[in-house]
Design goal:
globular; single chain; binds coenzyme A
Length: 144
């Protein structure tokens, strides 16, 4: 049976292991234990994990800035894919955002991750052609 529940810091090591094992997911300083704890505290109850057979098999992290929602790190272990687990995880996040009155959500996909782009497109998410993301990195924070 697959269970979806709110992610806590007790899940951190397992989530990081999932991320490490998944091509197409980049791990940054922002994924440190300290930064993740801050993120989960700021966006309480909005990130989720999926469990099956006594282990963690999927996750998604969600937050907001008061106006827009943001999704990160949606992933499901290969042997559990195509069962609607990602869809359930994302739905939980979007419901949390909706409950806060936030009706728009963004996410980043590496330009090399064609499979993820196909997935999001298939789920009705719109690839933005009208905006480019600009990021400022303070010197010394190149892996932020
Ligand atoms: C993308 C990913 C999370 C999908 O997980 P999943 O649990 O297999 O997805 P679901 O079973 O919920 O799929 C939902 C729908 O998307 C479709 N889908 C799933 N993977 C797809 C893919 N790679 N390409 C196109 N469509 C896909 C399914 O067929 C299903 O469609 P349906 O509702 O019409 O049947 C998973 O493939 C993954 O972990 N990939 C690697 C990590 C990654 O790239 N994550 C995205 C980072 S932005």
């Amino acid at each position: 049976m697959i269970t979806i529940r709110v992610m806590t810091m007790d899940d951190y090591d397992a989530v990081l292991a999932l991320m490490n094992a998944t091509p197409g997911i980049s791990i940054r300083d922002a994924d440190s234990r300290e930064a993740t704890a801050r993120y989960l505290q700021r966006n309480s109850g909005m990130s989720f994990v999926a469990q099956a057979d006594g282990k963690l098999i999927g996750c998604v992290m969600c937050g907001h800035d008061g106006r827009r929602g943001y999704l990160q790190h949606l992933l499901v272990l290969p042997e559990y894919r195509r069962q609607g687990i990602a869809q359930s995880l994302v739905q939980r996040c979007l419901s949390c955002l909706e409950a806060l009155g936030i009706g728009k959500c963004h996410l980043d996909v590496l330009k090399t991750n064609d499979a993820a782009a196909r997935y999001w497109h298939g789920q009705g998410w719109q690839r933005r052609e009208d905006i480019d993301r600009f990021s400022f990195t303070r010197p010394g924070n190149e892996n932020a």
